């Protein structure tokens, strides 16, 4: 039996919450009503973050930027692992697209499938990160290998080092590499907080939706700058709010999302990373509106629902008697993502891409 071993208690609340959220967690609130409630929470979040007007918001933003400089690189890393990354990969195989891309996909055309949209986003990374065959590439936060395996197949002479803090992700990627006869990938299980790598070794570092788990971007970008060769580049994909930045807080009543799915996480603003250019300098930034993530999350929900019986089997292994509760919590998670990113036609929250360069001379 697969269990989420060592998962801290606060990451595994196996009984439904009181009140309306509890009703929703028991599946007693219709999805349309639930989605309307989530949109109301999005509006409340915007009002809360903008309280006091522009000057007060800017002051709080500046204070948070400064506090990030004094944080650990990432916090609550075991919680994030328990909440997502050590779940059996079979769960994600039943919900995500065929490349197991656990991050926003890209829908440049109407009517695209989830698998098309995975491919479209991966191709966009190739262009924007200026990847070419033969490079030495470091990937931070590799998930179940969506980009790792795409790069390995597309650039067979590249040397790819993929890192994540989840051992089950490593085992999954290693099995896929064996099945596909891929030999140019090495997967390392390590917490980015303590990751040690050779200096000046990589032409590229790529990272897709891992930075939202990070706090101290000054230290992280400094370390990445050391691992890159002079002239080497970092490509980052994160989800963002256009202007606001806020941590997911678990204190007090906490936020449902922070308690169950994103403990220690941060919603960065589209310009957050631009404040940390001591070691790496920005070359390009691209913004995608939130509808791409909205469609991605709705596709994940549709797959979970379509595969209900098989999903329940996997969740029963992972969560035991609380499987039904977690089945619904995962449905609520996909809906929360879809409604957040789709809010106001995708104009508030969205996705951002950045390319930084390590200057040839410091
Ligand atoms: C949202 S997933 C994205 C996965 C993958 N990049 C994708 O797009 O499919 C975030 C990834 O970051 C990793 N991660 C989160 N916090 C980490 C940490 N402190 N150290 C190492 N990896 C971490 C997770 O294990 C996971 O692989």
Can you describe this structure in just a few lines?
With 362 residues, the chain is of the alpha/beta class. It has helices at residues 19-25, 31-49, 53-69, 77-85, 89-95, 114-128, 146-154, 167-179, 217-227, 256-260, 291-306, 308-319, 323-342, and strands at 136-140, 159-164, 185-189, 202-208, 228-241, 246-247, 266-267, 281-289, 349-357.
Tell me what the structure shows.
The protein has 13 helices and 9 strands. The chain is α/β, with parallel strands linked by helices. The chain has one domain: Rossmann fold (3-Layer(aba) Sandwich). It has a 7-stranded mixed sheet with strand order 3-2-1-4-5-9-8. A two-stranded antiparallel ribbon has the order 6-7. Helix 5 packs antiparallel against helix 12 (308-319). The longest helix has 20 residues, at 323-342. The site of S-adenosylmethionine has 22 residues, from helix 4.
Radius of gyration: 20 Å
CATH class: Alpha Beta
Quickly give the CATH architecture. Answer: 3-Layer(aba) Sandwich
| Number of strand elements | 9
What keywords describe this structure?
362 residues; alpha/beta; Rossmann fold; 7-stranded mixed sheet; two-stranded antiparallel sheet; 13 helices; 9 strands; 16% strand; disordered N terminus; binds S-adenosylmethionine
Task: Annotate the secondary structure layout.
Elements lengths: L18 H7 L5 H19 L3 H17 L7 H9 L3 H7 L18 H15 L7 E5 L5 H9 L4 E6 L2 H13 L5 E5 L12 E7 L8 H11 E14 L4 E2 L8 H5 L5 E2 L13 E9 L1 H16 L1 H12 L3 H20 L6 E9 L5
Parallel strand pairs: 1-2, 1-4, 2-3, 4-5
Antiparallel strand pairs: 5-9, 6-7, 8-9
Helix pairs in contact: 2-13, 5-12, 11-13, 12-13
The site of S-adenosylmethionine has 22 residues, from helix 4.
